[in-house]
Amino acid sequence: GRLVEVDDIHVRYGDLVALRGVSLAVEEGEVVCIIGPNGAGKSTTLAAIAGGVTPEAGAIRIDGRSILGQRPEQIARLGLSLVPEGRHIFGTLTVDENLRIGGYIQRDRTAAKADLERLLELFPRLAERLHYPAGRLSGGEQQMLAVARAVMTRPRLLLVDEPSLGLAPKIIDQIYEILLDLRQRAKLTLLINEQSSNRILKHADRIYVLRGGSMQLEGRAADLQDGE
Ligand code: ADP
Ligand code: ADP
């Protein structure tokens, strides 16, 4: 079924109109990418879905129910988890400690522990560095940690803001392989922001192109690839 529906939302920051009528839909199990240049409104779109900004017009529905006016904590309880741009890991804490912060949202420690063990199989680079200060990880490892920590909250929908930012092509592919693996194993639905579609088309089911706060294009990734 339809997990997320964004219907003609408008968002402004003071005088600046960031979104001028943005609509999108994500079906359960899909991998959907929003592609657009810096300033297009990608982060604002994810923030609106996660409850961090409130649209002045339009509707956002999760499982068919409106979430407008709900606080981010309430929305998170519906099974949403946001991996923000810039990763926001705790650099002086260890990898293990960062992951446990994600696990605290789960009340059952035994379940959290089992999740962590299973999750670390997907992240061998993190498993080998569990007791490193997270600030000493490479950029790619920090991105993996940010994703793993978000997954520790057991979301159904992972919102990921520019996971490729500043990373080498090889690492980007690794991160996408992990995301696609998580989609299978943890039954995740993915909505991902990226600036460029170059390395992304082959991983996504569908793409939206956002520019200047408006949706320009929507299509199946396979069709967009054929049309190149
Ligand atoms: P993107 O993620 O595509 O780079 P953003 O959603 O971050 O785009 O930004 C869309 C527009 O809104 C930009 O013009 C940006 O400068 C502006 N903007 C984003 N966040 C804020 C904020 N907190 N206050 C004021 N303006 C903002
Ligand atoms: P115990 O509860 O068995 O005394 P510890 O607190 O010593 O366990 O943690 C042992 C390991 O279990 C940790 O290294 C960590 O990997 C995992 N763990 C414990 N609590 C959590 C949690 N809330 N979330 C995720 N992992 C956890």
Question: Your description of this structure?
Answer:
It is a single chain. It is built from 8 helices and 10 strands. The two termini are 31 Å apart. The chain has 228 residues and is of the alpha/beta class. It has helices at residues 42-50, 72-76, 95-103, 109-122, 124-127, 139-151, 169-185, 221-226, and strands at residues 2-13, 16-27, 31-35, 57-62, 65-66, 80-83, 157-161, 189-194, 206-211, 214-220. The model has no long low-confidence stretch (mean pLDDT 91). One adenosine-5'-diphosphate (ADP) binds at residues 96, 100, 103-104, 109, 112-113, 116.
Fold topology:
Elements: E1 2-13, E2 16-27, E3 31-35, H1 42-50, E4 57-62, E5 65-66, H2 72-76, E6 80-83, H3 95-103, H4 109-122, H5 124-127, H6 139-151, E7 157-161, H7 169-185, E8 189-194, E9 206-211, E10 214-220, H8 221-226
Parallel strand pairs: 3-8, 3-9, 6-7, 7-8
Antiparallel strand pairs: 1-2, 1-4, 4-5, 9-10
Helix pairs in contact: 3-6, 6-7
The chain binds adenosine-5'-diphosphate (2 copies).
Pfam family, one: ABC_tran
GO molecular function: ATP binding
Organism: Labrys monachus
